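Pilot study result, target chain (212 residues):
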Amino acid sequence: MKKNYFYGIFCRYFMQHFVVVTKKKIAHYFNRLNTDYVLDFCTSTGLQLALLKKQNIKCVGFDLNNNLLRYNTTYMPGLQFVCADASKVPFKNGSFQGISFAFALHDKNKQLRDAMICEAKRLLAPGGKIIAADFVVPWNLCSRTAYLLTFFIELCSGHFTLGIGFIKEGGLHALLQKHGLTILQQHPIYWRNSAFIIAEVTDDATGNVTEK
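Predicted structure:
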């Protein structure tokens, strides 16, 4: 109980600022890429959709928490929300020019993360882009120091094993490359313990996992 309480306070008064900045960056880059239609995975509060809408980008977000989506629909009119499982998204192949993941991967188990990227590949139209932000493997003094903060955050979050396991498996870079995605741009964020990555599909786009 105490862990969840302190985690909630920390997220509300500290992490929320960085999450907003990251989601603004995602919306900004989709606008620069002239993206017409974006799907936001695990949309949660719907903030990403609101920021995309400000850029005049058509968008839809999904989440498994139906109560949260009802709240969003009531207080965020004009935005489209769908209740769905991230491993079985109810849209046709190639429906979207852009797909976003804003810290939506590290707190899932390995099987679900793989399924989510497979679904993203299936849903992405030819030439479309995936923009993702999440944890990466520490690689210098700054990122290693920030990793200690990440360790504390994950310890209090309730998904400690998943978050730290994600980093140990290679973080965001390894996950995207494992699924045949080519990284076009990457920008370190959060004191370099996370990255903002733009990627595209370069294999047969079937969604099959390539094991290394």
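One observation from the pilot: The CA atoms of residues 137 and 167 lie 6 Å apart. A full batch analysis is planned for the follow-on phase.
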